């Protein structure tokens, strides 16, 4: 759970807040008008966050690659062409037109 403190108070108590984060293992959220503005976290917490972000990006990239590799073309089914209103069909120069 993070400790919240208004920015005006945080300015006056910065040294104490840093000690709470580094030695007490706390996380401090500095607020302005009751809304979170910044967070003070230990360097170890920041490193873990950055590593998890990098791992998430690698996992997302691999997921996209596996999804794209799983996509393949499906052959069209001739009996469905009338159902979808095929307007024209190229049959080649040697095939007479159907009526």
Task: Describe how the helices and strands are arranged.
Layout: E1 3-6, H1 7-12, H2 14-22, E2 28-32, E3 35-40, H3 43-70
Low-confidence stretches: 68-74
What characterizes the major β-sheet?
A: 3 strands, mixed
Order of helices and strands: EHHEEH
Number of strands: 3
Globular, elongated, flat, extended or rod-shaped: what is the shape? Answer: elongated
Percent in strands:
15-25%
Q: How many individual helices?
A: 3
Q: Class by helix and strand content? A: alpha+beta
Rg on CA atoms, Å: 31 Å
Average pLDDT over all residues: 75
Can you tell me about this structure?
There is one protein chain. By secondary structure, this protein is an alpha+beta fold. It contains 3 helices and 3 strands. Strands 1-2-3 form a 3-stranded mixed sheet. A hairpin with a 2-residue loop joins strand 2 and strand 3.
């Amino acid at each position: 759970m993070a400790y919240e403190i208004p920015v005006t108070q945080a300015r006056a108590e910065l040294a104490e807040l840093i000690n709470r984060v580094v030695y007490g293992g706390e996380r401090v959220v500095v607020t302005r008008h009751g809304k979170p503005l910044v967070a003070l976290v230990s360097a170890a917490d920041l490193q873990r966050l950055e590593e998890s972000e990098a791992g998430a990006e690698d996992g997302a990239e691999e997921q996209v690659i596996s999804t794209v590799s799983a996509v393949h073309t499906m052959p069209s089914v001739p009996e469905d062409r009338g159902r979808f209103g095929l307007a024209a069909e190229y049959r080649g120069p040697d095939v007479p037109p159907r009526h």
